[in-house]
Amino acid sequence: MSAQDDTTQTQPGPWQTVKRGLRLSPELRRGLGFTIFLAAVTSIGRLVVPVGAQQVLDKGLLGEGGPDIGYVVLVAALGVAALLVTTGTNYLMNRRLFVVSEHALASLRRRTFRHIHDLSMLHQQSERRGALTARVTTDIDQVSTFLQQGGMVLVTAAAQIVVATVVMAVYSWQLAIAVWIVFIPVTWLIKWLQGHLAAAYTDVRKSVSKMLSAVAESVVGAGTVRAYGVGARTSERLDASIDEHRRDQTRAISRSAFSFGAGELVYLGVNVVVVVLGAFLVAGGSMTVGELTAFLFLVILFTQPVVIGTETLNEAQNAVSGWRRVLDIVDTEPDVADPVDGVALPEGPLGVRFEGVRFAYPGGEEVLHGIDVEIRAHSKVAVVGETGSGKTTFAKLLTRLMDPTSGKVRIGGTPLAEVTFASLRGRVTMVPQEGFLFNGTLAHNVRFAKPDLTDAEIYVAFAELGLDDWLETLPAGLETELGESGANLSVGERQLVSLVRAYVADPDLLVLDEATSAVDPATELRLSSALDAVTRGRTTVIIAHRLSTAETSDEVLVFDAGNLVQQGPHAELAAEAGSVYAGLHGSWREQTRSN
Ligand SMILES: Nc1ncnc2c1ncn2[C@@H]1O[C@H](COP(=O)(O)OP(=O)(O)OP(=O)(O)O)[C@@H](O)[C@H]1O
């Protein structure tokens, strides 16, 4: 099932969701028997007040021989002892529920996060990032709130209802039946309310995700928004998503307020029935005053779980909707999977082969139409073409960020789909256009691929790439803070750091999406000599946006509208009059001359 399909497919019911959720988090069931035992003891302990009141009234005060203070004191002492035990078991039960649910949810968070990571680039783009973050944060928080608050109610409610019913029947079976007659229609009402609340809270969860995405986009893209002067349009979209969330939340809250009122009504209704019928029974001599008093206390014990239950319905619905969305993610099959019994890439330099590779993005038209190509080990290959011609798609298939719709990619002769992720990620590195930098120091960012690299080794890497002079210009050298996404550096400098990072990872196949952004001439010079050093001695595929890169490559692959139309050394291709490459090269030279 796909994560974004949840609006179109029939959703699993609340029970199915809870059952699936429990199967996925077996920790929640650990020691459940003992927790239920503690709940039963707590519930039995709560009988102290009704039974004590009945004993004190009927035997201690209104007994045949007159008031018996000794008996009253005995009942009071036993009551206090029982209350102490109940407090202890109640504490233990709550603690167990907290500990178990926190454990389970921490591992659910981890699992969901890892799964999001495993989902291919395709999912990460189509499910918006803010929404994915909400899965791991707010959605799981909702489940946690429910399990810790509502979960206790669920565990104690059933026990309390059973215990209260038994004792009520002992005092007066007629009144016990009356209580149940009022109670049964209420359970139907609750079921009906549950359905309505579930729908309302599903809407709330969706609008929260939408709102988070809108906020995240407008914060991350603040620069672009300002540059294009579309602040008003962005604010409108944000306002609309906030309004939608307010509307959904208000609707859900008014429905839950209604269900809360319904719970109160049950309590009052049952009390009225007991008082009226009980008065008749006492007058007719089939019930004592003490038993009726006890019964009224028992009604509290009986209806309390129902009333509190309707209150927690609110959280329960919220939680089930959240849980369902988390499960949707966890159940989404990653479309690029680590092969079971996969193999490692062969030792030594790696060549690449594409055999009849076709690719279409989900729901889109084919964008690569049968690519056959061989890239020799150790060669430096430039991939060029108009924008949208399929270069990036080619690179993503080459590094298995996606799988071809048909055809095969081989690296070092091994079909890519059979190579373990560990071997693939260790030997093949892709440097995207905007190589992402993390908030932290320069050293931290370079160490990303190799955590145990020493400072001395990092200095050597900078020197080997001819970047030691640049490093010296930084205020704190390797300890320079780069800021969020490397914001303290210029675009060109960020690319330099990405290159160093790729260099220390020492892959056998390097796939690099050359940055398009213009950089100052000094940095440009540093970049091109660092690039030369990085590519030396390994197979390199560069998506070249500057044709100067193509000029210095062993071979050039020319893409046009999803087809590989030319392949060969720069000089040869440029000489083919009227060819796509000759055209590209001609216009690039004109552009650089006019610059
Ligand atoms: N995530 C996506 N979903 C759907 N279609 C996509 C996606 N990414 C790219 N495409 C489409 O696939 C085609 C090839 O895109 P691709 O990014 O591979 O081209 P490119 O040559 O790398 O372009 P550029 O130089 O602008 O990066 C284009 O028509 C593009 O619209």
UniProtKB/TrEMBL annotation:
TM region(s), chain numbering: 31-49, 69-93, 152-171, 177-201, 265-283
Domain ABC transporter: 352-586
UniProt xrefs under Gene3D superfamilies: ABC transporter type 1, transmembrane domain, P-loop containing nucleotide triphosphate hydrolases
Family matches, as Pfam families: ABC_membrane, ABC_tran
InterPro entries with a match to the protein in the record: AAA+_ATPase, ABC1_TM_dom, ABC1_TM_sf, ABC_transporter-like_ATP-bd, ABC_transporter-like_CS, P-loop_NTPase, Type_1_exporter
Domain ABC transmembrane type-1, first and last residues per copy: 34-318
SMART domains: AAA
Annotated membrane topology: Multi-pass membrane protein
Chief place where the protein resides: membrane
A single GO molecular function term of this UniProt record: ATP hydrolysis activity
Domain of life: Bacteria
Location in the cell: Cell membrane
Keywords, in A-Z order: ATP-binding, Cell inner membrane, Cell membrane, Membrane, Nucleotide-binding, Transmembrane, Transmembrane helix, Transport
GO terms under cellular component: plasma membrane
SUPFAM superfamilies: ABC transporter transmembrane region, P-loop containing nucleoside triphosphate hydrolases
Official protein name in the record: ABC transporter ATP-binding protein
